[in-house]
Amino acid sequence: MKKIFRIPLCIILFSLAYLTANATDGHELWLRSVKPNPVKIVAASKSNAVAIAVKELEQGWTGQSGATVTLSLVKDAALKGDGFRITQTSIEAKTGQGLLYGAYELLRRQQTGQAVSGVSNPSYNLRILNHWDNLNGSIERGYAGESIFWRKGDSAFTVTDADKQLWQEYARANTSIGINGAVLNNVNASPQMLSTQYLQRVKAIADVLRPYGIKTYLSINFATPIKLGNLPTADPLDKKVIAWWKAKADEIYKLVPDFGGFLVKANSEGQPGPQDYGRTHAQGANMLADILKKHNGIIMWRAFVYNASEKDRAKQAYGEFMPLDGKFSDNVIIQVKNGPIDFQPREPFSPLFGATKKTPLMPELQITQEYLGHSYQLAFLATMWEEFLKSDTWQEGKNSTVARVTDGSVFNQKYTAIAGVANVGLDANWCGHHFAQANWYAFGRQAWNNTMPAADVANEWVKLTFLPSDGETAKGWEDNFLKPVQQMMLDSREAVVNYSMPLGLHHIFSAHEHYGPGPWYAPARVRKDWTPPYYHQAEAGGIGFNRTATGSNAVSQYHEPLASEFASVEKCPEKFLLYFHHLPWDFKLKNGRELWDELCYRYQDGLDEVRNFQKTWDKVAPYVDAQRFTEVQTKLQRQCRDAQFYKDGCLLYFQQFSKRPIPYDIERPVNTLEYYEKTDPLTMQEVVKQ
């Protein structure tokens, strides 16, 4: 007979209390509550921003107990825009907003153990989140629940106290890392966005964001005068169309006096635009810009354009916008994705950066992980953005980095800006994955300081997000948690590149939500540039996209010496090798391996790295609360499965062309190619063949 062991009720209650106390859903982000020391704040100014700064310092002060901290507005040539100067007991700035940014920086340095002194100026004037939120509450490429701004149904236009609380928390999080603008809706915009009912809700949102110094922007549909105004045309040179936009702008600014402006996706992926009427991008943008100028508004005009007739999608943005350089109004800024294709795990920077000498460009980064595993996979993107911002365009000689040609260091620009496609939703932890919060954080920090190393960003975020408040748990925390977790983050994006598309491969995703591999996807009736074979071009003779002079000649869009470097198979960085070159399977790489073997090893390395992430995370369990530990552990298990799916599916598919064996020390695939081709990697369900 088995003995039944009865656990005393007191032990059960204690255990439940411990687990509850040691659990967090991550909603506080990097702004976790602390037990503050007493502090006296002396502030001459009484603006909303300064009032918030005082409150934040009083509630978050971990410096010397009983200290007096002064907040002062000063005239100082060393301070630019909303920049600030801090010491252990003072903050100086030219603006109240600068004092608020300084308060967050002072508290951040206290909590992370950094020296509290120095001047900090923003790299860009405008640091903007782009929300791809739809008016029905769904989010395009959103992986963290529904929109925090919009919802469908009878309550779509009702503003609740819960809404205002959430928007306030969102505003606080953004301001704490230097973000000062938000585009509230999808670039694939509904004309209804500018209807009176929705604009009333925009006003409600703007009223909550304003005290934190965050301006509100909207994406617009270029055909709105037809859809909403019942006009027969949206021709930007038509007088009635111009009059309609003027009236609409006046309506918006009456509701939101500090409205920032419009973001426009035009003549791209089926969206309407000025080219529908024989007009140029410049004519369309300038019509809107001229209307907003009296309101101090701007137009952010996206350069994400491509059509099926071109032989190389990577060349099209440059081809359309270079002839228009200098033809845009001075309150138009062209928004350009970091790479020529579309937010790939790795691709070279867009050749437009630095090429338009008379037209300012703003980088567009993607915080949401459309192509890097959604909210299922750990991919710290600060390393990608550091690589991108440090890339030298050579457009004005050596050190014409992407950062410097966009932040006003190289070209005289009225506006400097950077955008990030947000990963925020209604999930309790905001981002769907606890480590995805780090990408929101990283965008803000690197937008403020575009030379900030990814390692410093990771170090800050881990400390702010996970550092224990009790001394007992904190013992050994730096060696046993901070260092291994920080390294895991820094290695994560490269791991994703390796197990998904190494050596310059790109856009070989499944047709199902850009998740998982699909190098085989090529239905007869789907346009070629929406299929992976268009990009990898694998065949018996080799693999890769020839963008040299014997191919599409996309290399010619880059400035020398880059054009020659990318065109040379000997000089091209191996991380971009198959992006620029179509090479035989037996091509020898610098390490002596043949191309096929190197691909196999890269895929295996990526999988092994994720397995190491699992081990790292399991090992740090004693230093993290139970809820976040379990939730991250579950995500890493999923990521490991996905990496295996990538490795096996891609190698089996490409092996059909290479006719070469997988090296003996590489793991054998666990399923057949047929299995991978018929399985949706997102749902793991069998797909319907198209």
Structure commentary:
This protein has helices spanning 9-21, 48-60, 96-112, 161-176, 196-209, 224-227, 239-255, 281-293, 316-321, 382-390, 402-406, 437-448, 454-466, 471-474, 477-500, 533-536, 562-567, 577-580, 595-619, 626-658, 673-678; strands at 39-43, 67-73, 84-87, 90-93, 118-120, 126-130, 181-183, 215-220, 261-264, 298-302, 332-337, 361-366, 417-421. Residues 1-21 have low confidence and may be disordered. The chain is built from 21 helices and 13 strands. The protein is of the alpha/beta class and 690 residues long. The strands form two sheets. The protein has an eight-stranded parallel barrel. A five-stranded mixed β-sheet has the order 1-2-4-3-5, covered by helices on one side.
Name its key features.
alpha/beta, 8-stranded parallel beta barrel, globular
Assess the beta-strand content as a share of residues.
5-15%
The biggest sheet amounts to: 8 strands, parallel, barrel
**What number is the mean pLDDT?**
95
Shape: globular
